[in-house]
């Protein structure tokens, strides 16, 4: 008990190196790290101060006391160089020789030519004057004069027009008019969708075969609303059979004319898809 009280408190190094080899070197370095750091800082600062103080003392006390004769000077003699330059200037440079002018080109043989002058007794040719307008009224312009009948119409009549085409050649059947799937104004049953289903419910008849088989469901029908509102081609997209598909087509064919679809202010043909419901009570 007394030994524990007298012993110094354990620090971090003692805790880390407990039960380890403390003579290896790491324990000694960690133990004396602060001492070594302090010595290094003192030595470094002292060295810097000595260098700075020595340089300052040399400039302050040694340089001003140097004797003037100790400062060596070098004299440069330029007289020899000046003499050489004068000698070079005195050299006489001969002027360039004059080149002889090139010989003149040889003269070419020439013959005098003057335009002929008309003689005093030579006949002067008078050009033919142009014809007058009255002479051109009943004649055709040409390179020479020819006697003949008077021309009543100077202008040549155009060729006759080609025969009119009464039947187009090589043209097939006219192209079927486009059927739209989406338009600015959709076709509509008179009175709207509610009136359309009222009409279908009042006209449709449940097929007996479907009643016996207890069949119910929806028949999807696609048809064309023509430009005059009549019902065109009808196709069954999805049916349930047992006569229900044929009955839906029959009722749609019997519909009155719709309000046709419009595109760019004109009536157009439009596809329309609708379901027909079959439900047993």
UniProtKB/TrEMBL annotation:
Signal peptide as annotated in the record: none
Organism: Arcticibacterium luteifluviistationis
Protein name per UniProt: Energy transducer TonB
Keywords of this entry: Cell inner membrane, Cell membrane, Membrane, Protein transport, Transmembrane, Transmembrane helix, Transport
Domain of life: Bacteria
Membrane-spanning residues: 40-58
Lineage: Bacteria, Pseudomonadati, Bacteroidota, Cytophagia, Cytophagales
Compartment(s) where it occurs, according to its Swiss-Prot or TrEMBL record: Cell inner membrane
Domain spans labelled TonB C-terminal: 191-281
UniProt keyword annotation of Mitochondrion present: no
